[in-house]
Structures are given as structure tokens and as C-alpha cells.
Write a structure and sequence with these properties.
heterodimer, A: alpha/beta, Rossmann fold, 5-stranded mixed sheet, 14 strands, B: Rossmann fold, 5-stranded parallel sheet, 14 helices, 8% strand, globular
């Protein structure tokens, strides 16, 4: 067992992926000697060289577009987008090219790219450094979307993402980069939980609290704090596709569902999950599905983010609303 | 503000004049046999026929759309024939003659414009990527592919070169300029082949750029050259040199093929709304096929029998294109769900199953 932060676990996972397959490349802004602004690629440049750890020009569309070209040549690029808000210049390449390449070629072309994006708020940053853009990816056919909440998942899921033949958007909860857990790096990837599976992070009986990424810690704290209700916390892990059987099974047991995320409310992941759960679990629901999300506003100045981000109290308020019916 | 660069008359590399005189060019010596020139003539005539048949098929309702290459045959045949088998091309959506050079059957191109496929060929096998419609996007794919070629150690003598095609309008796109820059800093083995056909739908070149396109390259740190895009020999020589430069490890080149879109942007377009007929007449005099014919005739390198045989071959090809186009089968409805993901996807699987059941319910009722 090794005690690793989420950031170090992704780093170790990337290293394992690069050792396993010489076609795996890392590319992005400042990923070389600096090791990335969050040091997630620390040491890789030194050990794998400039041909496999590529400091690119400062142009996100160029990074994703050339990664597509390298994938077409047989490589497996892991692209780092420095911050969530800087993904948008690469939106065209991601949505019109990357996501569609397999289907438009009837499976003759494969673009196994992992796009790592540190996302979410809570670090007191300036504009464009605290966004939660997951809904854009979920709405795009052809992309897989995952988010990790602990170092164990960070270590294994980055490796699973690299081995996937589909493009994977790998969302890293930046305010949780320094959260630690024990990781069994001696285990094999075959023993790890599948990338697409949700996980019951804390069992409970009265209400299901569904979250992912940075909100898992908040959700677990809420479950701990609520002495009235037994809260079951589900870590979604895969946002696309969603492991609905696990979600439905839980909701049918508890009869209530609260979905919490940092993404804005309208059209957020919670909206789709609420619709699906209502269809599949209608006769088991004791209350409507409750969403606890960011407001439908631009991300505010950092001095206001503690009001904007769903925190422990807002999550508990959501749980209380579920019991008002 | 000074605009001298815009009005400067840049050198145009030309080997064969519109009158059919082979002048050659000291910078681009071309060793070519009469047989090879006759083959190029044949290519030019045949691809023009495929194109005109496709326009007719669209008018007859057999195709949803067609983007005509009329006038750009020499730019495409010249560059397409400069490619080696293991080279890789990343086209835009009008490169029907390059596709021809890469051995792609016309019906595969028609399939896309008919709405049967999004491009049915195997890009790896043909060395020709699928058409890319979002302007400029493919320039980055070509550059990345070329960066992969470098990592494969496939640069050097008989190395692999990559070429990407785009138009004058695409030079305004960020992706095209990012591709120039990524290729330059990585010294990637890629040739940027711009067919400057003077028009981006209705917008003339002066709405896109204030300097000649080939001069952009200098700012990115690699050579740029303007070639007479209606001169198949010049395009062949210039592209071959650029490809060899790339494959040998000397980095990218921007080739501006100065040509003219003699037809509409696509079959949905109406150029009479925005350009003068006189301009078209001027370019008709520079027709890419006519000058090769004149050269062959004037030098006694081809007789009437040869020209008649090419025309007959074109007629047969036209017939084949019409027949094959009409015979293209519609895809099955469940093809919608095919290859969206490499790995099993529960959402797609569920929707496919539900839709299949829904479709089957009509059959059960005998409604279909």
C-alpha cells in the first residue's frame, strides 16, 4: 500500500500507462520540465523524454487537433488541458472531430485520446479557472466522461482511460488534488473496479445522495453530519455512460434521491439523472428527485464562491427537502 | 497604412503556359515522359467527367449535394500524383481528383453526398483521410499525423510525407494557423496545400487576406511557394519537391496553388449573385485541361485517336458513375447506432434495442 494524493496517484498511473505501452504520449502546455501547473506530469519528461512528453505551443485547439492526428497514426495521446475554462478553444476539435471520428468512419478509425481536465471551483482562483463543464461532454455522443474522487480511482481509472479505445474526458477535481488515500499499486489493473461502474461510497437506507468528483467529499461529510437520516452516498465515477443499474437499485431501496454537483442546475447532469430515475423508479419514489447544484449564473468572483458552490449545508438542505414530501 | 504587399505581383511557378508551351522552371526541373503527360491528361479528363456527372446526379435528385472541383483538376491531379503510396493525405471536401489518385472509387465519394455514408473508404488503406467539412480542422490532424511519423522514425530517405488540403477561406481559420505553428516548431513532415480558388462561397480573396497566402509561411518559419494551380506539370513538380523536403526531414512547406473555382461553391450555390461572368471567361482561357491538350497536339505527342479514346473512356466512366450511384443502397436504420463507441455502451445499446422493437412493431402491424 502506498499513501498517495489524487495528484500523485494520477502521476503514478500515467507512469504505469507509459511503461506498459510505448505508444502512450503525454502532451499539453507546461507538461514537460515543469511537470504541469499542478505537477501531475512531474518527472515524466525526465524519464520518458521530449518525444513522449510533449510541451506544445499554447493553443488548445492545436493540442487536441494534433493529438487526433497522432492517434490516427497509432499513438495514444494523453492531453492535458491546463484548466477547465481553457477547454473551450478546443471545443471544435473535440465535438466535431474527436467525438465523431469512429462512427463517421464506420469503425475504421479510432482516436483513443484521454483529455485530462482539472475542473471545478473552491481554490480562490481568478475567472475561467473554476468551471464545471461536464454537461457539454455528456451531451456529446462518442465521448466517455469520468471523474475521480479519490486516489485509488485516480490511479486505476487513468490507466483504464488510456487503454480505452474511445476518447475519454478525464475530469480531475482540482481542489481535491491533495486528498490522500492508501493505493495498492502492486495490484493488477484487471482487479480494479471497471471504469464504467458507480460505487456505493457509504451505505445507507433512507435516501440516496448521488455525486461525483469534488462533491464526494462534501457528500460523505453530509452523510456523517446528518444524524436523523441514513444517507447512502453513490460516487458516480462514470458520467457517460452512467451506471444506471446501481443508481436504480439504490433509489428503489431508499425511495429518495438527491443529486449534487458543482455544474450549473439547468441542463446539468442532475437533470438527466432525475428524468431517468423518474422513468425507472416512479413507483418507488417517496419524493421528487432533488438537485443541489451551482446557480444558473457565471462562476462568481472567488470571494463569493463559498456561497455559489453547493456545500455541506446546501446538500443537507437538499436532503431535508427530499423528506418534506 | 501601407498596403504594398497586397498589390505586389508575386512570382507564379509555371512550367506549361495556357497556350501549351512547355517553358520549364529552373527551380523545379521536371523529368517527365510523353507517356506520363498523356496519363495526366487522361486523369484530368476523367475526373472532370466524374465531377460533371455528379452535378447532374444532384440535379436529378440522386445526390443531396455536390461540391464541384471544376477548374481545380490540375491542382489536385498534380499534387495527388506527386504522392507516394505510403504518404498520407488529409483532404477538405472538394478533393475528388486527389481521391482519384489515391485509388478511391467515385461511388465512395458519391455515397457521402448521397447521404449513404460519411465516407466509405478505409483511410489507412488508401492513404487518404475522410473528407473534413469543418473548415481547417484537418490541417491539425495532418500535422499531428506527421508528428507521429517523426516518432515512428519514418523520416529520411523514402520517408513518409503528409499533405493536407484546404482553401483560401481556410487560411482565416485559427486551426489552420495553429497547424502552421505546430508543424513549424516540430519540424513536422507535412505539406500545406492551399487551393486558392479565389472564392470562399461568395467572399473573394480580399475578404480573407491582405497578403498573398504563400507569404504567410515566412511568418511561421518555413517556405511558401505560389504555383500556377492550373498547370498540372508545375503543381506536380512543386508538390513533389515539397513532399521530398518533408519526407527527408526538412519540415513543412506551404504550397499556394493559384487556381479558380469555375463552378458554384456547391450545387446549392448561385455565383451569379456575387461574381462577374467576365472573370470566369478570363479563367476559361487558362483551363487546366486545354493547355495539356495543346501541348500534346503541338508537339505531335498525341493523335486524334488518343483523344477520342480518352473521351470514350470518359463516356464509359460517366455511365458507370451514374449506374453505381443509383445502385448505392440506403443504410439500415439501426446503422445509426453503429460504432458510436468502441466499447459496449449501455445507453446506446438500450436505445438501439428500444428502436429495433419500435420498428418491428410496424412490421408486426403490416404497416411497412
Amino acid at each position: 500500500m502506498t499513501n498517495l494524493t489524487i495528484g500523485k496517484a494520477i502521476n503514478a498511473g500515467l507512469r504505469a500507462a507509459m511503461e506498459h505501452d510505448p505508444k502512450v504520449l503525454v502532451m499539453g502546455e507546461d507538461v514537460g520540465k515543469l511537470g504541469g501547473v499542478f505537477r501531475v506530469t512531474d518527472g515524466l519528461y525526465k524519464d520518458f523524454g521530449a518525444d513522449r512528453v510533449i510541451d506544445t505551443p499554447l493553443a488548445e485547439s492545436g493540442i487536441v487537433g494534433t493529438a487526433i492526428g497522432m492517434a490516427l497514426r497509432g499513438y495514444r495521446p494523453v492531453v492535458e488541458i491546463q484548466f477547465d475554462g481553457f477547454f473551450f478553444p478546443a471545443a471544435n476539435q473535440t465535438f466535431t472531430q474527436l467525438a465523431k471520428m469512429r462512427r463517421r468512419s464506420a469503425g475504421k478509425l479510432s482516436v483513443p485520446i484521454v483529455m485530462r481536465i482539472p475542473y471545478g471551483g473552491g481554490i480562490g482562483a481568478v475567472e475561467h479557472h473554476s468551471e464545471s463543464p461536464e454537461s457539454y461532454f455528456l451531451h456529446t455522443a462518442g465521448l466517455r466522461v469520468i471523474s475521480v474522487a479519490n486516489a485509488v480511482d485516480a490511479y486505476w481509472m487513468i490507466q483504464q482511460a488510456v487503454r480505452s479505445d474511445d476518447p475519454v474526458i478525464f475530469l480531475e477535481p482540482k481542489r481535491r488534488y491533495y486528498e490522500k488515500s492508501e493505493v495498492d499499486t502492486e495490484a493488477t489493473i484487471a482487479e480494479a473496479a471497471p471504469m464504467g461502474a458507480a460505487r456505493i461510497a457509504r451505505p445507507g437506507t433512507d435516501v440516496t445522495l448521488l455525486a461525483y468528483g469534488p462533491m464526494i467529499k462534501t457528500a460523505l461529510q453530509a452523510a456523517e453530519a446528518d444524524t436523523e437520516h441514513s444517507i447512502e452516498v453513490i460516487d458516480l465515477r462514470s458520467l457517460s455512460p452512467v451506471d444506471y443499474p446501481t443508481v436504480f437499485e439504490s433509489v428503489k431501496r431508499t425511495g429518495r434521491l438527491v443529486v449534487a454537483h458543482e455544474a450549473t442546475l439547468t441542463g446539468g447532469p442532475g437533470a438527466e439523472i432525475a428524468a431517468r430515475v423518474t422513468e425507472a423508479c416512479f413507483y418507488h419514489l417517496e419524493s421528487p428527485v432533488i438537485r443541489v447544484a451551482a446557480f444558473d449564473t457565471p462562476y462568481p468572483q472567488s470571494r463569493l464562491e463559498e456561497y455559489y458552490l453547493p456545500d455541506l449545508d446546501r446538500v443537507l438542505d437538499g436532503v431535508d427537502r427530499a423528506f418534506a414530501y | 497604412m501601407s498596403d504594398t504587399t497586397a498589390h505586389e505581383e508575386p512570382e507564379l511557378i509555371q512550367l506549361l503556359t495556357p497556350e501549351g508551351e512547355l517553358t520549364g522552371h529552373p527551380g523545379y526541373p521536371l523529368e517527365i515522359t510523353a507517356d506520363e503527360i498523356r496519363d495526366l491528361y487522361r486523369d484530368l479528363v476523367l475526373v472532370r467527367r466524374v465531377d460533371s456527372e455528379a452535378v447532374s446526379l444532384q440535379r436529378q435528385g440522386e445526390l443531396g449535394l455536390w461540391a464541384s472541383l471544376l477548374g481545380q483538376e490540375a491542382a489536385q491531379i498534380g499534387s495527388g500524383r506527386a504522392l507516394r503510396e505510403h504518404d498520407m493525405a488529409f483532404p477538405s471536401y472538394r478533393e475528388h481528383a486527389v481521391a482519384w489518385c489515391r485509388g478511391i472509387e467515385p461511388k465512395e465519394l458519391l455515397g457521402m453526398f448521397r447521404g449513404v455514408t460519411n465516407g466509405g473508404w478505409d483511410p489507412h488503406e488508401q492513404g487518404f483521410h475522410l473528407y473534413t467539412i469543418v473548415i481547417g480542422s484537418q490541417a491539425l490532424h495532418a500535422t499531428g499525423y506527421a508528428m507521429g511519423v517523426q516518432r515512428d522514425g519514418a523520416v529520411g530517405e523514402d520517408g513518409t510525407a503528409v499533405i493536407t488540403y484546404f482553401g483560401d477561406g481556410a487560411t482565416s481559420q485559427g486551426d489552420t494557423n495553429e497547424a502552421f505553428n505546430f508543424a513549424s516548431v516540430n519540424n513536422a513532415p507535412v505539406v500545406f496545400f492551399c487551393q486558392n480558388n479565389q472564392w470562399a462561397i461568395s467572399e473573394p480573396l480580399e475578404r480573407q487576406a491582405r497578403v498573398p497566402i504563400y507569404k504567410r509561411a515566412a511568418g511561421f518559419g518555413f517556405p511558401g511557394v505560389r504555383v500556377d494551380g492550373n498547370d498540372v506539370l508545375a503543381v506536380l513538380a512543386v508538390t513533389r519537391a515539397a513532399l521530398d523536403n518533408a519526407r527527408e526531414g526538412n519540415g513543412p512547406t506551404l504550397v499556394e496553388a493559384f487556381t479558380y473555382r469555375m463552378g458554384a461553391h456547391t450545387t446549392n450555390d448561385d455565383p451569379t449573385r456575387y461574381r462577374d461572368a467576365a472573370e470566369l471567361d478570363e479563367w476559361k482561357a487558362k483551363d487546366p485541361i486545354l493547355r495539356v491538350r495543346r501541348y500534346l497536339e503541338n508537339n505531335g505527342l498525341a493523335d486524334e485517336e488518343f483523344f477520342a479514346s480518352v473521351d470514350a473512356e470518359a463516356d464509359a466512366l460517366g455511365e458507370r458513375v451514374r449506374t453505381e450511384c443509383r445502385a448505392l443502397p440506403d443504410p439500415e436504420p439501426l446503422d445509426i447506432f453503429h460504432e458510436v463507441y468502441a466499447e459496449p455502451n449501455v445507453h446506446i445499446d438500450q436505445q438501439r434495442a428500444e428502436f429495433a422493437e419500435y420498428l418491428a412493431s410496424f412490421e408486426a402491424e403490416g404497416a411497412r
